[in-house]
Design goal:
Chains A, B, C, D: This is NAD(P)-dependent alcohol dehydrogenase. Chains A, B, C, D: It comes from Mesorhizobium salmacidum. Chain A is built from ten helices and 16 strands. Chain A is of the alpha/beta class. In chain A, strands 3, 4, 5, 6, 7, 15 and 16 form a seven-stranded mixed beta sheet that branches. A six-stranded parallel beta sheet of chain A has the order 10-9-8-11-12-14, with helices on both faces. In chain A, helix 3 crosses helix 4. The interface between A and B is medium-sized, with 34 and 34 residues.
């Protein structure tokens, strides 16, 4: 890699075949920008949905996809005060959400969506849209944090008050779910993990799952969850599927239970019976990644708790299409692309 | 009324014709009981659903229905310390919920449901399941508080943090809705009220509604609500209907908006699209009346704010069947039965 | 006033005699700056402490004091997206606190402290450090909000959950206290106001005080407050004095009571006995103005609640030293300086 | 021990020599009482202050002291529904605080204070003032929970929102402090422990302390704490001493830091400078043990987290005076008395 060429994967249309490697110039930082030499990028399922044209049908081309990246600050604009060259930073995906409530929806500045993505050698980040990477993590590990880890953290530690000793049910073993499992274990929560694969459930146990349910063997996983909790029900469920699955989630919840809506993997609808909703005083909350302050708190926790992200496979920068294909195979852990 | 006869309306089966007036003995208070001479009873829509066999199909007969009542303590058990004779008290409907989280569902002791109801001359209340009535209210007014007012209060002041200046949309003009409107006005919230009746909407304005929407004239009331808020959406909606109406509620909510699920008047299902749920970080919460501490706080607020419950009509104790029939007519305000 | 001259009052040293009127050039906005033509400035007591050298002993000269200002955006930098020319804005005093937790202390960018103040014809504001002024207020009224109103709002509606019907005790009738009184009235709180002046207490009643205490006539004002609350104590107290006065505040608080520490008018020390602190589970919280999101919420509430700031006197721009002198006289309401 | 004799240690006046062993009858349970055969009692420092006449100068004699106890339910009153004979229960010390806010102070029913204490073979507990003991703990271990563990839990998990990765400073190695240290470790918090003894600090490390400070070697322990946190300060401090020590706590706190006031070991006064209080938006909260719901949640966490209370020494029932004397020696862990 030469220092004055900026390689990028650009969508020239929808579909993986139209994702093309191109070379361009290294961008110039504005007064408050960081020029970041990217070291590693992590894929999320929504990246595939964007490449395939499912999530943002009116995207303009060419477009550089992906949102997760870690890199080194190699230059800064004249007014930058939060960072200096040489620091290792992560991009903050919802760039205009520093803390508290989110900005009004239409003004979202989101990496890899309304803003260009991260699948390049170089990236400009506004200094307000970056955080220091946790020093204990490798580049590949750090790259996995911006969406999957922050979503799990926000659902479990910001939008919900974690009460050690309580139960949490985590659906599946995707990127958010594995971080949720690691956080649950570190927070003193009892995690129940569901999957259709006994092998993945075994791995989940090694990551700290308290109990596991194979929903293929036990389709009424809500009843199984209730049994595991002595009939009381689960205190918090991370809903990754939607549709009728959410009805089971409702059935599995304890009184004053909480359901965090996270996933886009299944149905685009949620449907609940009202009576148990009222009787158990259920709270359902929609989660959309998180704010920068939460990202900073999470990174501090990752250091304190010595959490290591689970990586399924690392690909080279010229293997990006294969990396996207691998994403379809239901990996156990994150898929990472390095620029080295 | 003789002092040693206890008249009660008892269900001897389902259906209004099987609600019969009977006479019995005045019950003896146990060590922690209050014997209350009931002065006024208020009807809730769920009382009709119980009488008709819709809500509790396995009810045992005979059964005294209704939950709301105010009366005077005329005798106390030997160990009672919270009250003394002569005080005017309201029964607390979820009798074993003093504060904080509710007790596990199956152990609920609920007046007019798992416990006998209030449609009698005399009632025993455990001293832990009663609160002082607000002195500024008449008996008829005070009798309306235990379910309708406390549900509105709990949704707006306990389960939600009220932020003066924010908007709240209140569906309809039933008992909970009118209290919600009065509280909204007194809390500095901007209340939007929906109804199919222009006449009721006019009355709502006199109670402090900021804006009104006739959803018959404007079926897309969610769009109307969004327009009234300059496109931002509503901060809090009290959902009284369910079903597809809840989809409109979701559409009408602002970013970080909140939907309180309260009603049993319409569908028994809730159904939402996931994308706006995630994007706007919506919170949906089920409300089931409230705890005793909230009841006490509400009564203090009713005094401080000089709130007067809206009463549609007062019936005599021998007119109970007519009072239930009147409930079907869509009254504007509560229906009260006096024992005098 | 000519359009190309920028008048400013500048401290050339400590003490009011060294506050001098000077003329300079109109500053040029940077890419994210608003150039604001100031219409009105409001004084706070801490402005006098800065002019006198009490609050920031190591201030560099020349220095333009004061923090509160309202004005019209007359030009914007090339990258500004939040505002446009012609809008009327208020400067947000802690410029780098958008929402949630505050930034680390040493990085504070504070108008009239680490940043230049507002006592000029023209001011540059970063677009992230401004909010729209409430349209219902005059320039003079709007200018009073950034410190006094936001401090009261933050203590009462952000750092504390307001519960209508509860009691709040407000010490004195200074700028923060009068806004607190108006908010209390509008939120459905019962406000007790203390003062040494019967005349001011009468005015406080016209602003909605529920009860008043003249602490000169009744030095044990804590006992008086307890009596007014039927022995229960006050739920929230705004502490403006410190020192031994805070001990009385502690004595006047109810169980689970809250004390907001706001003022710098009296002692620089707080001192409490431990036993009642523990027994009543008291919470004491330090308040430092507030974040921008709170400012926006407050302005929305001011519109909804039709709150009009209380102004004691308006001075011309050439009368600034007299305005500072007037501040010493214990005005009832804010002191405003207009640039017209 | 014969089954029909009830041994008790009774204060016949103030001072340890007037604590005398007596025999009496086994009490009869009222309708809602549990008769508990006590297995183990744990001492708290306040028990010594009561025996010595320091804490409750107007105590009536004879009086059975101590508050912590575990035992077996051997009989129940006729109306008891929450427990059955054979279950192992812990007494809940503030007997009338089930959840949420505490009851008004003067009505407190507190074991070993306004109610008789636990230093007996048999004890009556109202069924609402008991919780199941965690099954994984021995009798001696379980007996230590009601005051020391619940106080630490309430300060860290109920009155404060625990954020994994944040720092907590725990003063000393008394009973509350050791539980706090174990909870901190299990919650993912970084615990800094202070002590004057290097030996105790070594033990603290084996219980999971992240850092330790010997305040004899480093009297300016606040500066040491600030250094350990890279200058940012500590997020939460458990104040066990009061007086000038609380000033150091304030200095050691980070922005938005929190100080929980717990201890009665040192001064009876708290004293703070106002400026850092305001600037850092400090919250100080008084802690008084906790409510029953918190006790239940804590016991669930103790099971999930496999926490084992630290016991310094176990004494026989006839060795009570020696146990009280041992309390003065600064033990590392709780002192327990068994009735066996």
């Amino acid at each position: 890699m030469s220092s004055d060429i900026n390689r990028s994967w650009r969508m020239t249309g929808f579909g993986l075949p139209r994702l093309e490697l191109a070379e361009g110039r290294i961008p110039e930082p504005g007064p408050h920008d960081l020029l970041v030499r990217i070291k590693a990028i992590s894929l999320n399922y929504k990246d595939r949905m964007i490449v395939d044209g499912v999530l943002i049908p009116d995207l303009g081309f060419p477009f550089v996809p992906t949102s997760d990246a870690v890199g080194e600050v190699v230059a800064v604009g004249g007014d930058v005060s939060r960072f200096r060259t040489g620091q290792r930073v992560l991009g903050h995906v919802i760039a205009d959400w520093p803390d508290g409530d989110a900005p009004p929806v239409l003004h979202h500045h989101t990496l890899g969506s309304s803003l260009p993505g991260t699948l390049s050698d170089y990236l400009l980040l506004h200094e307000d849209a970056a955080v220091l990477a946790p020093p204990s993590l490798s580049d590949a590990e750090a790259s996995t944090l911006p969406i999957a880890a922050l979503t799990a953290w926000f659902a479990m530690a910001e939008a919900t008050r974690p009460v050690p000793g309580q139960t949490i049910l985590i659906q599946g073993t995707g990127g958010v779910s594995l971080f949720a499992l690691q956080f649950a274990h570190a927070f003193g929560l009892r995690a129940i993990v569901t999957s259709s694969s006994d092998g993945k459930l075994e791995w989940a146990k090694t990551l700290g799952a308290w109990q596991v349910i194979n929903y293929r063997a036990r389709p009424a996983w809500d009843e199984a969850a209730r049994e595991l909790t002595g009939g009381a029900g689960v205190n918090h469920i991370l809903e990754m599927v939607g549709g009728d699955n959410a009805r089971r989630s409702l059935d599995a919840l304890a009184a004053d239970g909480r359901l965090s809506i996270i996933g886009l993997l299944g149905s685009m609808e949620l449907s609940f019976p009202i009576v148990p909703f009222l009787r158990n005083r259920i709270v359902v909350q929609g989660i959309s990644i998180g704010h920068r302050r939460a990202f900073e708190r999470m990174n501090q926790a990752i250091e304190a708790l010595a959490i290591k992200p689970v990586i399924d496979k690392i690909f080279g920068f010229d293997e990006v299409p294969r990396a996207f294909e691998h994403l379809e195979k239901g990996p156990f852990g994150k898929i990472v692309i390095t620029t080295a």
